[in-house]
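Exercise 7.
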Amino acid sequence: MTLTIPFSNSYGQLPPRFFTRQAATPVAAPELIAFNDALADRLGITRGADGDMARVFSGNEAPPGADPLAQVYAGHQFGGFSPQLGDGRALLLGEVEAPDGTRFDIQLKGAGRTPYSRGGDGRAWLGPVLREYVVSEAMAALGVPTTRALAAVATGETVWRETALPGAVLTRVATSHIRVGTFQFFAARRDLDALKALFDYTCARHYPDARTPDDLLIAVIDAQAALVAQWLSLGFIHGVMNTDNTTLSGETIDYGPCAFVDDYHPQTVFSSIDRHGRYAYDNQANVIVWNMAQLATCLVPLCDDQEATVERFTAAVHAMPDKIEAQRLARFGAKIGLSNPTDDDRPLINDLLDLMARDGADFTNTFRALAHGSARDQLTDRAAYDDWHTRWQTRLAAEPDAHSLMLRTNPAFIPRNHRVEEMIQAAVAGDFGPVHRLLQVLSTPYTDQPDAADLTRPPAPHERVQQTFCGT
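Solution. The predicted structure, written as tokens, is:
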């Protein structure tokens, strides 16, 4: 069977200043590590021989219909503005329109230098490729809007970071790679023609009902408010919420120093480059509001009465924290079995989180244990839990579907940091068994799987992951 990708490209029809067309840099000995058959079926891609797929998804061979290009964008990185960033090690191979009508980008990550590499080698090493593959697929199975992983290919080459490491290329799939930073690139240059073209393209691709910049801003605010509240409900920390890592589609993108909380504390930080906690677990809601303010600034020039526009956009951004909190209430309410939580339920939710933080309780296991009646065992302050439990049971009397709701919203399995690190170490040594095991178990995270009970265990002290890294 021949690998067939039904390309239907559109981004390349935008003006040339949106991107640079170029081919990927060939690699020495591409070898397919993983291929996502279920995702390929959704995209209408026909699987080919492993060798053919390794050549295509490493960048060694451009398939018919491909239009490789590197996208340009800008962005605020940890609060500092970089007027030009762009795909420094990625190429948009092309787009497909899936059988359900949804358009998707297919991007090679680690495909070599581009004009936006800023001195980098344009490559990726095996660890971050596998981390993104496994975590993005886990997030999809958890029901989180996210980029997806289609393929991972070993390059047979060495990538130099602090030491020599095996190289790899990830094939990433997204409904688009349009970022807040894409708008910032053209707004910073006062390129109104390009800004208008980007606005029209984004609306047509993601929000066809949007007619005005106000419509687009509110649609993106709503999507991002829902996304970040969902992250919080799963104990997920993105780790690098720069504006160039914030999509207009509302998908999670760029799984660099990401991590899931083990023992819960709201100020948890894993990213090695987040020295001041800007992107800590509990600050993510604040950061996304700041990022939306940057998007709003970019959209102002597209409006006629700019003074009035600033007032409207300011009001929209200032309304975002309440939207996030409403989404958070719904998510965490469901996690304790409440189908329609109200403001009166906030103390019940927050008191449990406070108790978990004081005890250093495991985030995922404690919430899952609520459904199994064993949450008390996750905490050391049993008396405080008993008091909370009494209040909780009183509230649950009005919730006939509480048990089922908690099983649907509290996963048994997440890609725990120490398991991801073990997987990477095994893969570097040539053993890809842990990769495929994690992918299999994490594909059904809300199902109890007794044979995989070891993957629910929090890290022992010597297994703790203290920091995560971008890997660029």
